[in-house]
Specification:
The protein is an alpha/beta fold and 267 residues long. The chain is built from ten helices and five strands, in the order αααβαβααβαβααβα. Helix 4 crosses helix 10 and helix 6 packs parallel to helix 7.
Length: 267
C-alpha cells in the first residue's frame, strides 16, 4: 500500500482470488452479482424527451412525391400547385424537380434511348434522396416511362424517407388533343423519334400509391387529392392546413389575383 492508500502493481498482481475464480473479470462478476441494490437510484426514462424530439415522425420525415405519366397528362401543373400549397403553409421545405428542367440542367448529356431515359430517372431519384435525407420534400414530375428505374428511384429514397408514386393516368388520346408543346404532332410526322406513347412505350406502374385522371378532374381537385392522400397517410400536418385555392381548370387562369396559383400550359 502506498502513501495515498492505493495498492501497488506488485501487490495487485499477487492478490489471491476467490476459490474457483481465476480471473479478475470473474471476481468482478461475483462482486456485481452480490452487490446491494442502490436504494436512491432513479430510473432514466428511455427514450428521453430530447431523443424523442430528434426522432422524425411521418409528418416530419423527408419525402419524395413522384408524378409519372404521358407528356401533357398534367404532371407538372399538379406538382406546381402542390408545391405552392406546401410552401404557402410554410411548415416544410419543398423542392420541385421538373423533368424538363432536369433534362436541361442535369441531364443535357443524355438522349432518349432507353438507357439514357433510365439514367435520367436515376439522377432524379438520387437528387430526391438527398433532399429526403435532410428532411425536405422532393416533388418530382417526369414522364418516367419505364418501371425498373422508377423502382430504383423508390429504393434510393425509402431508406431515409417516404416515396409516394402518383400515376397521372390521363388517357393518351386526351394528352394528344391537348398537345400544349406541339410534341405529339411532331412525333406523328416522324420529326421526333422515340416519343413516349407514339414510337416508344409507357409501362403503367402497378405500385402507384395514387392514380389521377385529369380528364375527369381539374387541376385544383387533383392537387387536393394529393394533399388529402398525404394527410391520410400521416405525411402532413392535417388536411385543414391545405385550404382549397380559387377555382382553376386546365388551360384557364385562376379567377383570383393570387400569383401563386398556376396558370402555365398543361404539362
Amino acid at each position: 500500500m502506498n502513501a495515498d492508500g492505493f495498492a501497488s502493481a506488485e501487490e495487485t498482481a499477487n492478490v489471491a482470488l476467490s476459490p474457483g475464480l481465476d480471473t479478475w473479470e470473474s471476481e468482478l462478476h461475483r462482486l456485481f452479482a452480490n452487490a446491494r441494490k442502490i436504494t436512491n437510484a432513479q430510473p432514466c426514462p428511455f427514450p428521453t424527451e430530447r431523443q424523442n424530439s430528434a426522432v422524425p415522425t411521418p409528418a416530419t420525415r423527408g419525402m419524395a412525391v413522384f408524378f409519372t405519366g404521358f407528356s401533357g397528362a398534367g404532371k407538372t401543373t399538379i406538382a406546381n400547385m402542390v408545391l405552392s400549397k406546401i410552401v404557402r403553409i410554410g411548415r416544410r421545405r419543398a423542392t420541385l424537380l421538373d423533368g424538363d428542367l432536369v433534362r436541361r440542367h442535369l441531364s443535357s448529356d443524355l438522349g432518349f434511348s432507353r438507357q439514357d431515359r433510365d439514367t435520367n430517372i436515376r439522377r432524379i431519384g438520387y437528387v430526391a434522396s438527398e433532399i429526403t435525407k435532410r428532411g425536405g420534400i422532393a416533388i418530382c414530375a417526369a414522364i418516367a416511362p419505364y418501371d425498373r428505374p422508377r423502382k430504383e428511384a423508390r429504393a434510393m429514397v425509402q431508406p431515409s424517407g417516404a416515396f409516394v408514386l402518383i400515376h397521372v393516368a390521363t388517357p393518351l388520346d386526351v394528352c394528344e388533343r391537348r398537345d400544349p408543346k406541339g410534341l405529339y404532332a411532331r412525333a406523328r410526322s416522324g420529326e421526333l423519334q422515340q416519343f413516349t406513347g407514339v414510337s416508344d412505350p409507357y409501362e403503367p406502374p402497378d405500385d402507384a400509391e395514387l392514380v389521377l385522371d385529369t380528364a375527369q378532374m381539374d387541376v385544383e381537385a387533383a392537387a387536393q387529392e394529393v394533399l388529402l392522400f398525404l394527410d391520410r397517410a400521416g405525411y402532413a400536418a392535417g388536411s385543414d392546413c391545405f385550404p382549397p385555392s380559387p377555382e382553376f381548370r386546365f388551360g384557364e387562369k385562376a379567377n383570383s389575383a393570387e400569383t401563386d396559383s398556376p396558370s402555365w400550359p398543361l404539362r
